[in-house]
Specification:
The complex is a heterodimer of chains A (322) and B (450). By secondary structure, chain A is α/β, with parallel strands linked by helices. Helices cover 39% and strands 14% of the residues of chain A. In chain A, helix 2 packs parallel to helix 3. An eight-stranded parallel β-sheet of chain B has the order 10-9-8-7-6-3-12-11. In chain B, strands 13-15-14 form a three-stranded mixed β-sheet, sandwiched between helices. Classes of the chains: A alpha/beta (322), B alpha/beta (450). Chains A and B meet through helix 7, helix 9, helix 10 and helix 11 of A and strand 4, helix 8, helix 9, helix 10 and helix 11 of B. The complex binds cobalamin and iron/sulfur cluster. Cobalamin sits at the interface of chains B and A.
Chain lengths: 322, 450
């Protein structure tokens, strides 16, 4: 007796919010184009049961000052542009970045603290060099982040830059700056569904519309906590699809930063032979981290190695082919 | 799904003799329904009841064993769709494919390399699971020669891939008792292939026309009808999106619908859906995370193997239990009373990152592992499981002071903020802040510690 298979589809009631980064001249900014993420009504890339209106995108990470702590492989691949953020942004756009993520390191190579004016100058230079929407992240200490990001938000008013990181410690200041100058925020919490939800609630209580909030669930690199990020993202995405309005923000994952911190990427000598070729290992480490996070719900992945930009974009294109 | 406690109770002897270790048959039945007891614990259960219970409690995804002896691999028997719901149990077998059109010497060399590959991570030895031999030549004798050559180089499980039953027969003849997986029974040749599987008592892959799950389900029904129970599925989908869809649908049908005809592990061939080696690695990564039971790679490269084995370890780690080491004082490179003392948490990943670097530095050292409930440095610090108090307590309870002459302790750079408090907790001690990353420990020990 022949059997028939009925494709098992979940009936989700919720969807991920659409968030648009960047603003064109008409919209009050200066970007050549905008990038919209989110809007999906299914688990990652399950086209048979829902819509996936916008493909996930790749943001390339650049720094305001030369990143002397980066893996030699990265420095070699980028060459001189790491000493000129504008040139770096242009190069990133050329190789196919959808977004630029500018990281303000907070200090230069000599250890001198970056001033707000310097941060603003770099952001302007990068905005001038590329037509892509921007993500701007501070050094990662709440007070310094506030100081630099508030100045940036004001100077680039109307550009719909995603400002990060916005954490429980400093969300008030960053959200206020975003509200005043038509920017977005990246709400960041440490691998926890409830904390993520809570921060989104606090942000929306300040009247920042949720279509201006991205969510950073915290990225663990392959071999360094990936499984935790992976599962918390699955849980957040399930909650979003089940209709929990405070978990429906598109997710951003700092895949490049996390993978290139690890020994496997940083060190080429004195490691076990079984680790194989350094370049291949390091580059694939980043790509595999990125693809795993895309498969658990990332809408934006940030990358560091230029060679991975086309590779990951191609994979996304294939994941989008229904 | 399984039977309820009451349904099971009806099948038991109802004598409450307690030999199963439970006070009543009903209590035992309840435990059975929760899968917390084994039916074999009751000596009096009837054969009919056994059969009824076995049928109802058969795992929704059949456990399939390939290979024999120490290297055999078992996959299937999964119970959840998302790892956070419980855990994933049986990591997919990762195989590398060779073809019988390759020169024999090349095949042998590759087989030996795959066989010998192993890499250590968090104290575990990770390795690949086997080799797939494909009859690309179409010749039965060439295939048999190639199979024999591979077998000569490895005890790992094999997958035999041939369309022609005659070639398959020739290959199988070289592997008596080795329990290879045979690939594949297709609608056009399934009778002959199933007959071989039955004769040699080996598991078999059912391969349907691309992506057609109905055809695949009917094929497995025919194969089980022919008396072969150990089946692996190839839904035929090869790309990033279609294979994700097929793997997800099969997993859901098995677990949520208890749909027996597709209640088997799935085999994938990421190389066939990729345009480059990098893409193959990413697609294999997707298959590791999303439900594959066997993954056959077209390229062997140590870097990729290391990455995929690491990913597999991550995804198949029980989310409820971080891998931990026991707290205590560890001796590295034979330390003496003047050797440096370092401290960190008992999360395996943290411990092995640090211990590996200290070991590699060649500097004899003491490593004090605190009881941090298996958390990484910053996680434990944020949760109060690696603060000044915890470290001070570990120093006291593990008798550190009797092992060393000095009173200096190195803490991870990531928790530099606790150094003041720790000096208060440990009067007379000097707290030194080490580097942030373990990679920098050797340099630190050689240049900074004295
Ligand atoms: C995975 C993870 C978790 C997992 C736990 C994993 C585990 N078993 O520990 C989960 C999801 C459970 C978790 C929970 C929490 N987490 Co958490 N987590 C992470 C994550 C992603 C990775 C941690 C990791 O595994 N690192 C790898 C290990 C090997 O690193 P490590 O232990 O630090 O060791 C390195 C170095 O420190 C050094 N080292 C180690 N020992 C020593 C010793 C010496 C002497 C020296 C010199 C060097 C050295 O060598 C190692 C390699 O370089 C990080 C963020 C990130 N991307 O890193 C956040 C992170 C650590 N978590 C954080 C927080 C806040 C939490 C929570 C408190 C959140 C909450 N409120 O619930 C909880 C706490 C747990 C609880 N209350 O139960 C924060 C800590 C913030 C801070 N700066 O204090 C982080 C940094 C995230 C963030 N950016 O906010 N987390
Ligand atoms: S051993 Fe069997 S008969 Fe005896 S109490 Fe247990 S279930 Fe009942």
């Amino acid at each position: 007796m022949p059997v028939t298979v009925e494709i098992p589809k979940e009936k989700w009631t919720g969807s991920v919010r659409e968030v648009t980064l960047g603003a064109t001249a008409e919209q009050g900014g200066t970007r050549a184009k905008t990038v919209t993420v989110g809007g999906e009504t299914s688990l990652p890339f399950l086209h048979f049961e829902g819509k996936y209106p916008h493909p996930p995108v790749v943001a390339v990470e650049i720094h305001d000052n030369h990143p002397d702590d980066w893996s030699p492989l990265l420095l070699k691949a980028w060459g001189d542009v790491t000493r000129d953020p504008a040139a770096w942004a242009r190069k990133a756009e050329e190789i196919g970045a959808d977004l630029i993520m500018l990281r303000l390191r907070g200090v230069d190579s000599a250890g001198t603290e970056t001033t707000a004016a310097q941060a603003v100058a770099v952001v302007k230079a990068v905005l001038g060099a590329t037509g892509l929407p921007l993500i701007v992240r501070g050094p990662g200490q709440a007070e310094r982040d506030n100081e630099l990001l508030v100045a940036v938000a004001e100077a680039a008013s109307g550009e719909r830059i995603a400002l990060g990181l916005c954490e429980d410690k400093n969300y008030r200041t960053i959200v206020a700056a975003a509200l005043a100058h038509n920017q977005l925020v990246i709400a960041s919490t440490p691998i926890d569904v409830n904390l993520a939800k809570q921060l989104n609630i606090l942000i929306s209580d300040m009247n920042l519309p949720l279509d201006r909030v991205l969510m950073d669930p915290t990225t663990g690199a392959l071999g360094y906590g990936l499984e935790y990020s992976y599962s918390v993202m699955e849980r957040l995405r399930l909650a979003a699809l089940q209709g929990d309005g405070m978990t429906q923000q598109p997710m951003i994952c700092f895949a490049g930063e996390e993978s290139w911190r690890q020994k496997e990427s940083k060190v080429g000598e004195g490691v076990p032979a079984a680790w194989g070729d350094w370049y291949k290992r390091a580059v694939t480490w980043e790509a595999t981290t990125a693809i795993s996070l895309l498969n658990s719900g990332a809408d934006i992945v940030t990358l560091r190695h230029p060679d991975n930009v086309p590779v990951v974009k191609k994979a996304i294109e294939k994941l989008m082919a229904s | 799904m399984g039977l309820s406690g009451l349904e099971i109770y009806k099948l038991l002897p109802k004598t409450n003799c307690k030999e199963c270790g439970f006070p009543t048959c009903l209590a035992f039945a309840m435990k059975l329904s929760q899968k917390q007891a084994e039916l074999s614990a009751c000596p009096y259960v009837s054969e009919e009841a056994k059969a009824a219970l076995a049928a109802a409690s058969a795992p929704p995804i059949r456990l399939i064993t390939v290979g024999s002896g120490d290297h055999k691999i078992e996959v299937g028997n999964e119970t959840v769709i998302f790892r956070h719901e419980k855990t994933f149990y049986h990591p997919p077998g990762i195989f590398v494919r060779v073809k019988d059109t390759q020169p024999l010497a090349e095949v042998e060399e590759l087989a030996a390399r795959v066989d010998g590959y192993s890499v250590e991570r968090v104290g575990l030895n990770l390795h690949l699971n086997g080799i797939a031999v494909e009859n690309a030549s179409g010749q039965a004798d060439t295939f048999a020669t190639c199979v024999a050559a591979v077998k000569g180089k490895t005890k790992l499980p094999l997958i035999l891939m041939a369309d022609d039953p005659a070639a398959m027969k020739a290959g199988l003849a070289k592997l008596d008792g080795d329990n290879p997986l045979i690939y594949a029974a297709k609608p056009e040749n399934w009778q002959a292939m199933a007959a071989l599987a039955k004769e040699h008592k080996v598991p078999i892959v059912a391969r349907a026309p691309d992506g057609d799950l109905t055809a695949l389900a009917n094929l497995t029904e025919q194969i089980t009808g022919a008396g072969v129970e150990d089946i692996v599925l190839d839904p035929g989908a090869r790309g990033f999106a279609d294979s994700l869809a097929a793997l997800t649908q099969i997993r859901r049908l098995a677990l949520k619908k208890n749909f027996r005809p597709l209640g088997y592990p799935v085999i994938t061939f990421p190389g066939e859906g990729a345009e480059s080696e990098a893409e193959e690695a990413m697609l294999a990564g997707e298959h590791i995370a999303k439900y594959a039971g066997f993954i056959v790679l077209d390229h062997f490269d140590p870097a990729t193997a290391y990455i995929l084995l690491t990913l597999r370890l991550n995804i198949y780690t029980d989310p409820q239990k971080p891998i931990q080491v026991s707290p205590g004082v560890y001796e590295i490179n034979g330390p003496g009373p003047d050797s440096p003392l370092l401290t960190t948490t008992n999360f395996s990943l943290t411990y092995f990152s640090v211990a590996g670097e200290v070991d590699g530095s060649g500097v004899p050292s003491w490593l004090l592992i605190c009881d941090s409930e298996g958390m990484s440095v910053l996680t434990a610090w944020a949760a109060g499981n690696f603060d000044a108090e915890v470290i001070a307590k570990a120093v006291k309870s593990f008798g550190v002071e009797s092992k060393i002459n000095h009173r200096k302790i190195v803490i991870p750079g990531a928790v530099a903020v606790i150094s003041g408090e720790l000096e208060e907790e440990l009067p007379g001690w000097e707290v030194r802040v080490g580097p942030r990353e373990a990679v920098d420990i050797p340099m630190y020990l050689k240049n900074v510690w004295n």
